[in-house]
Amino acid sequence: MDATRRWTPATMWVMAGLALFFGAFLVYPVGYMLREAFVADGRLTLRHFGQLLANPLAMQSMGNSLLLATLTTALTTALTLPLAHLLTRYTFRGQTLLNGLLLVPMIMPPFVGAIGLKQLLARYGSVNLMLIDAGWLDPAKPIDWLGGGGFWGIVILQVLGLYPVMLLNVTAALANVDPSLREAALNLGATPGRLFRTVTLPLILPGWFAGAIIVFIWSFTDLGTPLIFGYSPVVPVQIFDALSELNTNPVGYALVVTVVILTLGLFVVSKRVLAGRSYAMIARGHTAGATTPATAGRTAWIWMAGGSLVILGLLPHLAVILQSISGRWFFTALPSEWTTANFVELGTQGSVGRSIQNSLFYSSLSAGLDLVLGVAIAWILARRRLPFSGVLDALAMLPLALPGLVIAFGYVAAFDFKIPWLNPRENPTVLLVISYAVRRLPYIVRSAYAGFQQTSVTLEEASANLGASGWRTLRRITLPLLMANLIAGTILTFSLAMLEVSDGLILAMKENFYPITKMIWLLMGRIDPNAGSIACALGVVGMAILSASLLVASRVLGKRLGQLFRA
């Protein structure tokens, strides 16, 4: 019998532990929400969905969220397609540096950037005040850059924050297109437009679709940015508001289940559509001729286009940094006074400083939990061919399709019982750690699984033949060989959890448990004129920790870091 198919005691214990974890913290909350949405008075019913359809605010919010996600996806596509073409078609000086800079906005949380964008684009924000000072704008008629109560501000910020996700996927797809197909089409007289429409576009469609799905769902379920802009008629904010009436109004469950159906449906449809068509290239040509050296003029143009996009993507966060060191920034294009007192306040205000400690604590524990779970899952998938490994793989990747908003809402609803350490209304620590871990689990699984694939199984077999136990082999042989992947994956999960928005905003209900993101939201809602600057200082601390962590991860994982963000 094949050794990889044996149900050894270790395998059974690992599978039992994983089944218990996923059952309790993924299947149970989702099942609970489904029951509350479809059951009333002990009977199956669609009554709650009927009430949802009859609710004008809910329907307006659904329409706004769909429009927001569609615009964000379309605009990120329009930005990245030409840029990806230039990056894959030409080689030029500083190309590696530009590629890295273009991905920087991806690691900057839009939730924090929203504060800076409001400072820049408000009716009397920095941009309008600069135009007024230059005499180009009537002070009585400032331009409403944020538009529609903040709708266009959300679109702008999401496009600037999410274009790297699309760029990663589209660039990878374009790089894999056989250059001989392009040459053949041109030789047959095809125009550049016809070449793109009939050859390039069909071949890059899987890569574009993968990026588009992530961008669409991310935009549709973004909670933090609308909250900062004060724009409430969107689905995430309506779900957030529904938490206060879970026991009296089941329409909130119907809304959450609608989001689950939408997001899972998009993933299923994408798999079906792409699986049903062939995009393979026969006898792929040599790729060395796929790129040509760019002239000096074209190099300058590429840098101008790419650099402008990087600057625009980082501008909101630069505004946050400026506001964090401003003593006064009111009706002036730039701060009129400078100070470091806002950072001093982080240590003197107990609840604010505690939020940093809380975030570090939650993120560290969740990263450790992800490390254990990720290694166990990757080991089962890579080293054991078991009947239920496909289900395990699907469960591990499911958080990519389930927004954090949905998971956090499910935890609040499903664990509202008399066990204090499992009830987020009493103590959210356990559920915050688990929710952070569940959300980032796919990244560590991918990283660990790649490491297992790159490690020869013969080394483990030799260890076993010499009498070493499975645990000793894993500890002395396998894990040291996976160390780079595990370190990078663990740092990545830690850093992304540091500024996680939906989980912190929903699960942390008492101020002494607030993470950084919930404290920023609280400060932004205060009347105190200095509260906004203190919130920005807190955001800068979070960004610094996040950036330092990802810098270490990129040094360890190298170019493979970007692959973790591809669908």
Describe the structure.
The chain has two domains: 56-278 and 296-338, MetI-like fold; 340-567, MetI-like fold (Orthogonal Bundle). It is 71% helix and 2% strand. The protein contains 23 helices and six strands. It has helices spanning 9-38, 47-53, 56-89, 95-107, 110-121, 126-133, 151-175, 179-187, 192-220, 224-229, 235-242, 251-275, 296-324, 341-348, 350-383, 389-397, 404-414, 429-454, 457-465, 470-498, 502-507, 516-524, 531-557, and strands at residues 39-40, 43-44, 90-91, 292-293, 326-328, 337-338. It has a two-stranded antiparallel sheet. It has a two-stranded parallel ribbon with strand order 3-4. α4 (95-107) runs parallel beside α13 (296-324) and α11 packs antiparallel against α12. It starts with 8 loop residues before the first helix and ends in a 10-residue tail after the last helix.
CATH superfamily annotation of the largest domain:
MetI-like
| Major β-sheet annotation | 2 strands, antiparallel
- Which percent band covers the strand fraction? under 5%
* Separation of the first and last Cα atoms: 36 Å
Named at the architecture level, the CATH assignment of the largest domain is Orthogonal Bundle
Oligomerization state: single chain
Counting helices, strands and paired strands, the structural category is: mainly alpha
Helical content band: over 70%
* Helical run tally: 23
What would the average pLDDT be, to the nearest integer?
A: 84
Trace the largest sheet across and list its strands. Answer: 1-2
C-alpha geometry: globular
CATH topology of the largest domain: MetI-like fold
The structural domain count equals 2
Radius of gyration: 25 Å
Please tally the β strands and state the result: 6
Low-confidence stretches: 282-289
**SSE string, helices as H and strands as E:** HEEHHEHHHHHHHHHEHEEHHHHHHHHHH
CATH class of the largest domain: Mainly Alpha
